[in-house]
Design a protein that fits this description.
Elements (H helix, E strand, L loop, with lengths): L13 H8 L4 H20 L1 H7 L2 E3 L4 E3 L3 H14 L5 H17 L10 H19 L7 E3 L4 E3 L3 H14 L5 H17 L7 H6 L7 H17 L5 H10 L7 H18 L13 H5 L16 H8 L2 H6 L8 H10 L6
Antiparallel strand pairs: 1-2, 3-4
Helix pairs in contact: 1-2, 1-4, 2-3, 4-5, 5-12, 10-11
Length: about 350
């Protein structure tokens, strides 16, 4: 592996200049030398503080600081320029952690697009535009990425609801999100306002319970530790959320996306973790005003854990380990639900 440098090592800015020359956004590239000089000067004036409080995307080597927005910007530029020379494990670790902080600081990925990536993107965009010209204006797909679930009426939407409730576990998490977000858009157009909790959660319409959210992030950190990985990024994420007093639905959706990306990096999206760690969207959008669905097949153990905690699962299982709906309704009544 090459000797990795960042803004703390590249005092002459030699590597930064090379990296900036590859960026498509020239305005951004031209501002980088001034930005890094400011960072280096501030670090020099208060070296003790900067050493003590720095957070790194590559903590093992103390490279690529993400302590604030400016450092994260610069770290991303340095990383992208050098990542091809890093071994796969280190590259994926750093990239995953950088993605988390880029999302937290709301830094657009478009800033880091290179000349070669722009060329490839243009070719892909032209192909998509041509395909779009051949489609009719009235077609609306709930899963456009798969060219599936076309709807045009309330009846179509009801059929889609029935299918999703029964089959959504066969879709990966982001396909469930894609379906649900497009379903809400279609429902608004067609004046259809009755759909299940599952769709509301994946569409990002529910609220969040901070206690349960933090508990699930801590559970992820612990699971990472058990598998020999450093899951501290989950704790850092929970800590950063404490500064957000009343997160908007957009911020919660962004948080769910960040957690999902981390889950993929840590291997938590496999079937092995289905009943241990609720997926990112069930983790974030864990608070609902109404009931759970009314049949056993609609309710997963993960959803129950996300809402009521791990100790609740035993209280609603029957002798065979299945969910007993009557026990579930009793539990919901105790917690102030409205189950009938």
């Amino acid at each position: 592996m090459i000797n990795i440098v960042d803004q703390n090592i590249d005092k002459s800015q030699k590597i930064l200049v090379k990296a900036a020359n590859q960026l498509e956004n020239k305005d951004f590239a031209n501002k980088l030398p001034e930005l890094i000089s400011k960072i280096q000067n501030e670090a020099g004036m208060d070296k003790t503080a900067s050493d003590t409080h720095s957070v790194y995307a590559y903590p093992e080597k103390e490279r690529f600081p993400v302590t604030d927005k400016e450092n994260t910007l610069i770290s991303k530029v340095y990383f992208d320029y050098q990542k091809s020379g890093m071994d796969k494990e280190a590259r994926e670790l750093v990239e995953g952690k950088l993605d988390v902080f880029l999302n937290l600081y709301e830094i657009p990925y478009s800033l880091f697009e290179t000349h070669s990536e722009k060329t490839a993107s243009n070719k892909s965009g032209n192909a998509v535009a041509k395909a779009s010209e051949n489609s009719t204006e009235n077609e609306f797909y709930l899963l456009p990425s798969m060219n599936m679930c076309k709807v045009a009426s309330k009846e179509d939407l009801q059929d889609a609801v029935d299918t999703f409730v029964k089959e959504h576990k066969k879709l990966d998490v982001m396909r469930r999100v894609e379906f649900s977000e497009n379903f809400v858009k279609a429902a608004t157009k067609l004046d259809f306002d009755e759909y299940p909790t599952q769709i509301a959660k994946y569409a990002g319409l529910m609220d969040t319970d901070r206690v349960n959210l933090n508990s699930m992030l801590e559970a992820r950190a612990a699971a990472a530790s058990r598998s020999g990985q450093d899951g501290s990024v989950y704790r850092e994420l929970a800590s950063s959320m404490k500064e957000v007093e009343d997160p908007s639905k957009e911020e919660l959706s962004k948080l769910a996306s960040v957690i999902h990306n981390l889950d993929e990096d840590f291997g938590f999206t496999t079937s092995e973790y289905d009943n241990l760690l609720p997926n990112a969207y069930l983790t974030v959008f864990n608070k609902q005003a109404g009931d759970f669905a009314s049949s056993e097949e609609d309710v997963s153990a993960a959803e129950i854990v996300a809402r009521y905690g791990e100790e609740s699962l035993e209280a609603v299982e029957d002798e065979d380990g299945n969910i007993d709906i009557e026990k579930l309704k009793n539990l919901e009544r105790v917690h102030g639900g409205t189950a009938e």
